[in-house]
């Protein structure tokens, strides 16, 4: 039975794979990807195509977004080499995964998924700190949250800005001495700025780094009644 046209990208069926393969064979894939790069990942809202072309464009959008996040994350890790292993995960490299049922008669780049290999951080999300550290004193909570906020600030200083940042991006681990050690993760939505003025304007626009500190300050007050003093930077 044919899938609904509202089927989400990434949740592939054989029908969708067939449509994307057909789209690629017709030479339309690179045209679509050029449009997505130029439009920032937006499909033409005036397009009223239905059927197999609609399926193919949705899969093309998923393909574009997957590679876009991969390339952003790889650039960010290279830009943030000085922080790897101390407050962001170590970056080990990349590899490609072939999609199931990939055809052999077309460019394989359209049927591969890129993967970043990075350090696995064992710990808990900063957003769960109250549940994980039941009864923790205000100074303990303040130190962890302030450190996480400072990490976001250091990333900005190194010209990297996250489009979306928050407590869910921070994993709180422990070092070899048992001390809490936050790591900022998730760089698939980052931008790198070479111009200092653009960087100065972009960081506060995307609420870097204050969104971590402010959100956690309000969350702690709501859940525990404690008022923490967190410097979220200008």
Distance N to C terminus: 56 Å
**What spatial order of strands do you see in the largest sheet?**
3-5-6
Helix content: 40-55%
- Strand fraction equals 5-15%
Low-confidence stretches: 1-11
Helix/strand class = alpha+beta
Major sheet characteristics: 3 strands, antiparallel
Q: Averaging pLDDT over every residue, what do you get?
A: 86
SSE pattern, N- to C-terminal: HHHEEEHHEEEEHH
Characterization of this structure:
By secondary structure, the protein is an alpha+beta fold. The protein is 43% helix and 14% strand. The protein has helices spanning 14-25, 29-39, 52-79, 129-132, 138-157, 196-205, 210-224; strands spanning 91-98, 112-118, 124-125, 160-162, 170-174, 180-184, 190-192. The longest helix is centred in the first third of the chain and has 28 residues, at 52-79. The model is unreliable at 1-11 (pLDDT under 50).
In short:
By secondary structure, this protein is an alpha+beta fold.
Q: How do the strands and helices of this protein lay out in sequence?
A:
Elements: H1 14-25, H2 29-39, H3 52-79, E1 91-98, E2 112-118, E3 124-125, H4 129-132, H5 138-157, E4 160-162, E5 170-174, E6 180-184, E7 190-192, H6 196-205, H7 210-224
Antiparallel strand pairs: 1-2, 3-5, 4-7, 5-6
Helix pairs in contact: 1-3, 2-3, 5-7
